[in-house]
Every structure is written in structure tokens, then in C-alpha cells.
Amino acid sequence: MKQRSVASMMDLIEQVAVQDDNIRAVGMEGSRNNPSIQQDQFADFDITYFVTDPTPFRQNDAWLDVFGDRLMMQKPTGALFSGTMQPWYPYLMQFTDGNRLDLKIADVRDKDAYLAAEHLNTVIFDKDNQIEGQPEASDWDFHIAVPSEEAFQNSVNEFFWVSLYVVKGLQRKQLLYANQYMDDPVRKELLRMLEWSVGVSTNFQANVGKNDGRLADSLSETDYERLIDTYKLDDLANTWLALQTASQLFIETARVVADQMGFSFPDYPQAVIHYEAQIMNEN
């Protein structure tokens, strides 16, 4: 099936709102509002309908059929944006033509809180003309945050403390145990430190994307290859190599961050690396 164009999807989204008096405004958020990234066919349509009464939309899902042939749908629960006062009702829909619509039903009284929550949130259609002078959409909220020294020291400590768990798992020949700690928090902290290094090199004006999707664009080819090597966890020997690579890359990156931010760098990481090598070389 040919994928519907962006224009046809946006026309459909607006027409549904126009034809239903209960829908008072349409909000758009997320990556399609981000001027700093290139759009592709996999970008979601993140849309919010601000309504007078959410009840009719909750009675059944038949009203959603107008948006197209669904492959599947998810209806999560929980708050989506801070400051909103009423329940929100999300309908995350993947269509068979490749488009995805993340649609939310929100009380119209939450419109101001929605706009205040993120700089990528905009109202693109408003029957009551209550939104004027909206600022230009920006990914400012998703720029890499400046770390405090406490956050930096906690990251270093967490990385090397849990690296010892990885070694324990390897020595016990428990690959799944070792790899779970390798994935989180060891590599998680490595990624955090790499993000901070990008931050210091860009005056914290960079956004590396959801789940570090664009982090590679800001790393040297060598560092990116080393990072990828930390994902090679298919046997005990490779996990040990991955941990060694991660540790060296972490230390090098953390020293740069510490130097640029004026943080102190502790002595124990090298001692931990030496200790782990001793343990691994005993067998």
C-alpha cells in the first residue's frame, strides 16, 4: 500500500476536527515540529485534539476508523505533559500504509498547560481563536542539560561500581547477568558521559535525539566504532572486551568533560580497571 503524504494526513486530521463541534482546537507536538531535524517517512504525527467533552470519544473506538486501516493500536495511561489538570486519552495508531498517528484527546482547559509544557508544542488549528502570538517551535527543551558536579561524580561512580557486577557475572559464567548490567547502567552511563561531551563542545546547544538517535553525528568515527563495540555481547570473552572498551572510552570522555566543566576527576577508576583485569586474568 502506498503511504499517504504528509499533506493528506494533515488535511484528514484537520477535517475530522472541523466536522466535530466537540473538538475546539488541534495541537501538534514532537519531531514533526522540530526545525532542526530532517523529516522522513517514519516520523510520527503527534496530534492532540482539545475537546469540550472527552466522554463521546471514550465510548468506543469506531470513530478512529476514519484515519485509515490500522495495523495495531496502543492506548497507554498516565500523564503526558506536566501541569495538565484533566485526564488525557492517547490513541497510538500504526497504519498499514506506514504512517503512524499518536493522537491524544485532552480537555480544552488544558490547552495553556500544553503550550507551556514544551517548546515543540503548538496549536495549529483553533475554532475559538484563543491562541495568538505563539513562539516559534524549538527543540530547546531537549538540548543536553548542563551537569552539576554531583551528577558528574555520581555517573563516574555508578559506571565503575556496576562494572564490578559485570566482572562478577563473567567469572561466574553468567552471561545474561553480566550483559544486563553491561546494558544498564554501564552503557547507559557511558552514553550519558558522551552526551555531556557533546554538550561541552556545543555550549549545550545540541539535541542528540530520542534514545541518542543522532549521537553518532557528533562523535568521531573512532569513538563511534568503540561505542558500537560495547554492544558485542554474544559470549563471555566479547563481553569482557566490551567492558574494557567501555571503561577506556568512559575515562577519556569523562576527563574531557571534567576539564571543560572544572570538575575534579577521581583516582579510583584506574584502580578498578586494574583490579578487574587481575580478577579476569586469574582464570
UniProtKB/TrEMBL annotation:
<keyword id="KW-0808">Transferase</keyword>
<dbReference type="InterPro" id="IPR007530">
    <property type="entry name" value="Aminoglycoside_adenylylTfrase"/>
</dbReference>
<dbReference type="Pfam" id="PF04439">
    <property type="entry name" value="Adenyl_transf"/>
</dbReference>
<dbReference type="InterPro" id="IPR043519">
    <property type="entry name" value="NT_sf"/>
</dbReference>
<protein>
    <submittedName>
        <fullName>Aminoglycoside 6-adenylyltansferase</fullName>
    </submittedName>
</protein>
<dbReference type="GO" id="GO:0016740">
    <property type="term" value="F:transferase activity"/>
</dbReference>
